[in-house]
Design a protein that fits this description.
The complex is a heterotrimer of chains A (about 525), B (about 375) and C (about 525). Chain B has eight helices and 19 strands. Chain B has about 375 residues and is α+β, with helices and mostly antiparallel strands. In chain C, a hairpin with a 4-residue loop joins strand 11 and strand 12. Chain C is globular. Classes of the chains: A alpha/beta (about 525), B alpha+beta (about 375), C alpha/beta (about 525). Chains A and C meet through helix 6 and helix 13 of A and helix 6 and helix 14 of C.
């Protein structure tokens, strides 16, 4: 057995772990990142599953990556390049479609074609959502205060928190309250009359959650996803050149430049504790790494119920972690295609191939997809968000051929009887059939198919139940309640053990905020000279 | 054509100018005649038993009292008495009106039509609009329509035809000059345009774009949404909104008519007095020149109208801001349109305006002026 | 003018508001459209010799201040009311009866789940703690969270102090529980499907949501306010039927000098220059009055009694957006004799029969029933509460026999295919057939049945969309957002017009609380 000593150990080389390591290394810490797989990225990886075809295997679009991280770590110099996704089209059962394009005027005309009222509503809705997102955004860069604490820092935090809401006009405050409490479907009903428009918009209220568009709480997820859209000029949803793995690689490169060490094929088997402190980790091969700071980027169930012994943690904390809702709800299908799908609603090759294709033809379609999942089945007709990364970055596929990424909901992790190969194939078939309804040439264009169920996502990435957000973005699991009340400030009941994954505030998506905020908290807790080196 | 430049307006693309410079187009407005394509305006037909009632709920002027054939310039407000938009209401018939607007208002009209028997049609795309403006506008239009328009009074409408194409003519415009707007089925708008150009050629007609129009409307003291004021619908904070009084549109508010949106708030505002007024502010030539002379330059004047916010001061304190400005080649004066705190808004009040002289911020004297700056007799006669 | 104020609607809140206004020296007239007072809280004869609580069995929690302020005790009001228990049928075994006796309840649960029995007392304590906090929210007008006025800040501070008083864990429980789905809450505590299924109905009662919908934990808490500790799933039942509270309140109104007119339907509220000037009755009579207080639901008040031109469209849009969505059908049966409820060979105990017999075998059963409503269909297998009021109050079947009253969900107001007499009958058949599984021979005892679908409740009682709550009581329609965020303090946007019904804070299930708070605001204004 070998023992390695560091200032800090980061468990998991996903984007949050890497961001965390980069910030710690940048402050002069001797940091090691321990990644179980042969490559960094966690759920943000690019892999050449079939020769010549590169897939963003899991996470496939980016919008929420914090601009301060891009600036602080100088990621573009390390290869980060985010290309805009231009549009979203939703094919409709009647052969028509709804398009949302990069140009506002064109989108307005398109909505006007479906409903004159909605065209007017669209402008006002966007204004409102923009304003809401701007109001909530500072939260993303804030360590959640503990409302139950009377410590000056918490009171100050709560005042800041309250102040943010007070600065809103009454009208906007009420709108925000609605967003926090309503279902996406009900919220959109207040604005729009066009079903396909509501269905497509409501879809961003369900992505990654085990909720349907009519489930209260889904309107917040709408806002969570909207926040990403306000950084760029008009539409910041984008696709990283080289796939999402390129994002992870750029962060890893920045971390290494600052002196962090990244060990691949290094699976942590347990967190070593001593006298109520975490002092290091042990790998599956028996090697040990010791450090005064251990940071886990894994989800809390894995961190605290698998890697840590229950007896080392307070009982109510363990209870809270057990109560924390994870529930995987989505799957992923990656395809290699011989040709572009030819959509009945928009025949031939067109600008719509450079954007997202949303399979959300009606509200009832999406809601029914959810109904299937509630009772332990995958959706027979699922909601899907489809992109063709090779249309944006031609290097993703051999010339003339394409890769298609299909995000699918719902595929419940707790499917009745558990996932197996037969169910996986049936699920893949359901997905292909649902797309083929709208693009007749689709089936025959498929060269290779990779189907990932929540079980597959869990076994490859380690995300419990394959949940992409490391836990539901429900009101009772947000902000100072994420992941457990009292432990939302990236610390844990074990001294020296920190958390930085998507299960911490502010939650999922390729955001990196948890990794960064955790690093800043760690530096605050450890010796001052290090902290002083971090700007602001 | 060489030098055309284009810009967006309400989801359409329109000419900024048809030549490299817009100067000739500007002079045509004041000297002969200019023809503008103003089709991107939003246009709605409101008809039915309660058509007047609907419009009276929405706008601030008294629509019910308007005669058939009358056109009203008006604004409309939200419940807080803040302006949403401005435009015109034409009474086409007893129960038939046309509303023009700068912003989309289809949904808003529908929301106001509750319990009313009324039909609202968005005719923005269906209806083309051409503005013929300038001293020769009447003679050109008389030739094109082969009719006598001397009876058509300011802000009145009539129907006629041009080359057999039925048109509605209103004596309105956005230049503050003698002028007409011609409303025609959009499919037939191009032949009407051609006919007007043909009839107008002997009278010096020229197609004109937005740059020339912008200068003319500043001389005429006419508001532009998103430039001189923000629609309360788009404002992010209350400070971005304006009431009719704050836009000096007092004359458009019929407080004595039955309930309309914002009446309660407007009455309350009237009782306390508006906080702001919208006025003309003329930049003083002498101090402007002195500022330039001090560094060895002759004064530089804007070549086109500007649309930025420029601070106005009194005794060192900011008391307002100009939102558009232009050199008036005709009046030989530097004009701006500005929001000024009500107590400093009396015509003749001396203020200071910020100017940028060779990269440095300076101040020139400026005088509050009642609007419009330019008001020729032919506009109404 | 003969009156200072006119209250529309003689429901519990209207009566309470009228009594408070009368006590404050206002000359007040209460106008009720129907012949009987009580609004939705009425006991009526539905078949010769048979009476039922037509709409609701639970008159709600009457805040103690009302009893004191209006001297209700002297008028015959008994502050301690009977609380009906929850009876949970268990396949092949005696039903679990949940009573305030926590030990007895735990004992009843134990044979089915030792785990759940062990958790029972602690769960009851949690619910009691959370309800205690909610009671304090319900005693004051809705806090204006966004306001910076000193009075509002003080009120917020007061509530903040109350919250702090709960201690760290208690605060977290409040913040965390309210937005939760009731399914998650119950899953955290219990494992037994039938227990969770039956309890979850308290989280979805009268709302078109399923146990997995966020915010149904709030509904669950709301339905426990004022109940004795441990009486989970119980109902507040007044002796003499649900209408007895309104009988007492009527006397209170008269004692306070108020006048009550029944059969007086207000068809229009007159407004001139942003001020209320009076009302017009269906009879053609016009009454001039400067203050009008509506106990009707907000949708009915603003969209049927007033001219839209007097309100701005944004306000009316907000009124349109209130989710009413009555999801419940009432079935009242006149029975020739008491049905025999059995589990296998075991006959149910008397206590079990006196409870609200709850058929909701699991939370996913309830959820599936909800799915139908969500898509605009009637649930094929609804969940239901059945009670036999004649066991406690034989006078409800004066000439002998028994009454069986059922509330069943979900059958949405907005049915895709539309409501017809056949659909009503088919639904009642389903209900009877479901009960027959526990009470063989029941259908043979039915002398008469009355079915009230949401549209019937709307047409008979004026509750829009058949919503017994005057608006779903969910997080987004709660506190400062009830009935609409811009007007959550009882005052309407025109002077002199007020709301006092259960569509305002704190809302349905709290008898008279809205009426009391509205009256206090009205009196404070002038």
């Amino acid at each position: 057995m070998t023992v390695h000593r560091y200032d800090a150990i980061v468990i998991g080389g996903g984007h949050n772990g890497l961001v965390n390591a980069a910030y710690l290394a940048r402050a002069g810490k001797k940091v090691v990142v321990l990644e179980r797989r042969h490559l960094v990225g966690g759920a943000a990886v690019t892999e050449e599953i079939f020769p010549g075809f590169k897939y963003s295997v899991f996470s496939y679009v980016v919008s929420l990556l914090r601009p301060e991280i891009i600036r602080d770590l100088d990621l573009p110099r390390h290869g980060l390049e985010i290309l805009p996704l231009e549009s979203t089209i939703t094919p409709m059962p009647n052969g028509d479609y709804l398009g949302g394009w990069a140009d506002h005027d064109i989108t307005r005309r398109e909505i006007y074609r479906h409903s004159k009222r909605d065209a007017d509503a669209y402008d006002e809705y966007n204004k409102l959502m923009h304003h809401m997102a701007m109001a909530v955004k500072p939260l993303l860069a804030m360590v959640p205060p503990d409302p139950t604490s009377l410590a000056p820092s918490d009171l100050k935090g709560m005042l800041k928190f309250a102040g943010m809401f007070r600065s809103l006009s009454t009208r906007h405050f009420h709108a925000l309250y609605k967003l926090m409490t309503m279902s996406a479907g009900d919220f959109l009903d207040e604005w729009y009359e066009t079903d396909v428009l509501k269905a497509t918009k409501s879809a961003s209220g369900i992505i990654g959650t085990f909720m349907g568009p009519r489930t209260p709480g889904s309107a917040y997820v709408l806002l969570h996803h909207y926040m990403g859209e306000i950084d760029g000029a008009f539409r910041a949803w984008g696709f990283a050149k080289g796939g999402t793995g390129a994002i992870s690689e750029s962060i890893a490169s920045a971390a290494r430049e600052h002196g962090a060490e990244i060990r691949l094929n290094a699976a942590v088997s347990r967190i070593i504790t001593k006298g109520g402190r975490a002092i290091g980790v042990a790998l599956e091969d028996g090697d040990e790494f010791h450090a005064p700071v251990v940071v886990t980027s894994l989800d809390p169930k894995r961190s605290f119920l698998v890697l840590t012994e229950e007896k080392d943690l307070p009982a109510d904390f363990v209870e809270d972690v057990k109560r924390y809702k994870i529930r995987g709800s989505s799957g992923k299908v990656n395809l290699a295609l011989s040709e572009l799908p030819d959509f009945t609603c928009l025949p031939g090759r067109g600008p719509h191939h450079r954007g997202a294709i949303s399979i959300s033809p009606t509200m009832e379609y999406v809601e029914t997809a959810y109904d299937d999942a509630k009772y332990g089945n995958f959706s027979r007709q699922p909601y899907m968000d489809i992109v063709l990364p090779s249309m944006i970055d031609p290097d993703m596929a051999p010339p003339g051929k394409h890769v298609m990424s299909i995000f699918v909901q719902y595929a419940p992790s707790n499917i009745t009887g558990g996932w197996d190969a037969t169910k996986r194939d049936a699920f893949g078939d359901a997905v292909v059939d649902a797309v083929a309804r709208f693009a007749p040439n689709f089936k025959s264009s498929i060269l290779h198919r990779q189907v990932l169920t929540p079980a597959d996502i869990e076994s490859i990435t380690g995300l419990t139940d394959g949940n992409i957000f490391q836990g539901e973005l429900a009101l009772h699991q947000l902000f100072f309640l994420r992941p457990a009340p009292g432990w939302a400030k990236f610390r844990t009941p074990l001294k020296g053990l920190y958390q930085c994954g998507a299960a911490t505030h502010p939650g999922g998506g390729i955001m990196g905020a948890g990794g960064r905020l955790a690093a800043l908290e760690i530096l605050k807790d450890t010796s001052l000279p290090f902290a002083a080196r971090v700007p602001r | 054509m060489l030098g055309q430049s284009w810009r967006r307006w309400a989801g359409c693309v329109v000419a900024s100018s048809y030549e490299l410079s817009h100067e000739r187009e500007y002079y045509a407005i004041r000297n002969s005649a200019a023809l503008f394509d103003v089709s991107p305006l939003y246009k709605y037909h409101v008809s039915g038993r309660d058509a007047a009632r609907l419009l009276d709920r929405v706008v601030t002027r008294n629509v019910g009292a308007a005669k058939v054939g009358q056109v009203l310039y008006t604004c409309w407000c939200d419940r807080d008495g803040k302006v949403i938009d401005d435009g015109t209401v034409s009474r086409l018939d007893d129960q038939r009106f046309r509303l023009t607007a700068a912003d989309p208002n289809y949904r808003w009209l529908g929301d106001n039509a509750r319990q009313l028997s009324v039909e609202i049609e968005d005719v923005s795309e269906k209806l083309g609009a051409l503005a013929l403006q300038g001293p020769n506008a009447r003679v050109i239009l008389e030739q094109a329509t082969e009719s006598d328009l001397s009876k058509l009074k300011y802000f009145r409408l009539t129907t006629s035809s041009i080359r057999g194409i039925p048109v509605t003519i209103t004596r309105t415009g956005y230049t503050g000059d003698l002028g007409y707007e011609i409303w025609v089925d959009s499919a037939a708008a191009v032949p009407v345009w051609d006919a007007l150009i043909e009839s107008g050629t002997p009278y010096g007609i020229t197609p004109a774009g937005m740059l020339a129009l912008d200068m003319a409307r500043i001389e005429a003291g006419l508001l532009l949404i998103e430039v001189d004021y923000f629609s309360s619908r788009h404002a992010l904070i209350d400070a971005q909104t304006s009431s009719p009084y704050e836009l000096s549109l007092d004359w458009t508010v019929a407080l004595d008519k039955p309930q309309f949106n914002g009446r309660r708030a407007i009455r309350a505002e009237l009782a306390r007095g508006p906080a702001w007024r919208f006025v003309g502010v003329e930049v003083d030539w002498t101090t402007l020149e002195a500022n330039y002379n001090a560094i060895g330059l002759a004064p530089r004047l804007p070549t086109q109208a500007w649309r930025t916010s420029v601070p106005l001061y009194l005794g060192g304190k900011q008391v307002g801001y100009a939102t558009s400005g232009s050199w008036s080649p005709l009046l030989k004066r530097y004009l701006t349109l500005a929001h000024v705190e009500a107590r400093h808004a009396k015509p003749g009040t001396q203020l200071e305006i910020e100017i940028t002289v060779e990269h440095r911020r300076k101040r020139a004297l400026a005088t509050v002026h009642s609007l419009p700056f330019f008001n020729p007799e032919r506009k109404r006669s | 003018m003969r009156y200072d104020a006119l209250v529309i609607g003689g429901g519990v809140n209207g009566l309470t508001a009228a009594a408070y206004l009368g006590r404050a020296g206002k000359r007040v007239l209460l106008a009720e459209r129907r012949a009987a007072l009580g609004g939705l809280c009425v006991t009526e004869e539905f078949h010769p010799g048979f009476c039922a609580n037509t709409c609701v069995d639970d008159a709600g929690w009457l805040p103690p201040e009302i009893a004191t302020d209006l001297g209700l005790a002297a008028l015959g009001y008994a502050p301690t009311f009977a609380a009906q228990s929850l009876t949970i049928p268990i396949a092949g075994a005696a039903p679990i009866v949940i009573t305030p006796d926590m030990r007895a309840t735990a004992d009843a649960i134990r044979p089915h789940s030792a785990h759940d029995a062990a958790k029972w007392r602690e769960f009851c304590a949690l619910i009691a703690r959370l309800c205690g906090f909610m009671e304090s929210l319900y005693g004051v007008r809705a806090p204006a969270v966004e306001s910076t006025a000193p009075a509002d800040l003080l009120a917020m501070l007061g509530l903040g102090r109350k919250l702090r008083g709960l201690g760290r864990r208690g605060m977290i429980d409040v913040i965390r529980t309210m937005p939760m789905p009731v399914a998650d809450l119950l899953d955290e505590w219990f494992e037994h499907e039938a227990l969770k299924g039956a309890l979850s109905t308290a989280g979805v009662l009268n709302v078109q949501h399923g146990p997995q919908s966020g915010g149904t934990a709030l509904v669950f808490l709301h339905n426990h306010i004022g109940l004795p500790v441990g009486h989970i799933g119980g109902r507040r039942v007044s002796r003499g039927g649900v209408g007895s509270v309104s009988t007492v309140l009527q006397a209170a109104v008269r004692n306070a000098g108020g006048e009550i007119r029944t059969g007086a339907e207000v068809v229009r509220i007159r407004v001139k220059d942003d001020r209320v000037t009076g009302v017009a009755l269906a009879s053609g009579e016009e009454i001039d009055v400067p203050i009008v207080v509506s106990g009707l639901d907000p949708r009915r008040t603003f969209t049927t009694l007033l001219d839209a031109g007097d309100f701005d469209p944004e306000f009316l849009h907000a009124i349109d957006c209130i989710r009413l969505r009555g999801p419940q059908v009432r079935v009242h049966m006149a029975l020739a004799e008491l049905p025999r409820f059995t589990s296998g060979a075991t006959q149910w105990s008397d206590a079990a029969l006196r409870g609200a017999i709850t058929i909701a075998p699991s939370m996913s059963y309830v959820e599936k029933a909800y799915d139908a409503a969500k898509h605009g269909r009637i649930a094929e297998r609804p969940w239901l509460h059945a009670s036999i009021p004649t066991l406690d109050d034989p006078s409800m079947a004066s000439s002998g026999g028994h009454v069986l009253s059922v509330q069943a969900q979900y059958a949405p107001y907005r049915l895709r295919v539309g409501w017809t007499p056949e659909r009503r009958a088919a639904f009642a058949d389903t209900v009877i057939q479901m009960l027959e599984e526990h009470a063989p021979g029941l259908s043979g005892l039915v002398l008469h049945r009355e079915v009230l679908a949401p549209p019937d409740i709307e047409s008979r009682f004026g509750a829009t969309e058949g919503s017994l709550l005057h608006g779903e009581l969910t997080l987004d329609q709660f506190l400062f957002a009830r009935p609409v965020a811009s007007n959550a303090r009882y005052a309407a946007p025109v002077d002199g017009l007020w709301l006092c019904g259960s569509g305002t804070h704190p809302g349905a299930g709290t008898a008279g609380a809205s009426g009391r708070l509205a009256a206090k605001e009205i009196v404070a204004r002038k």
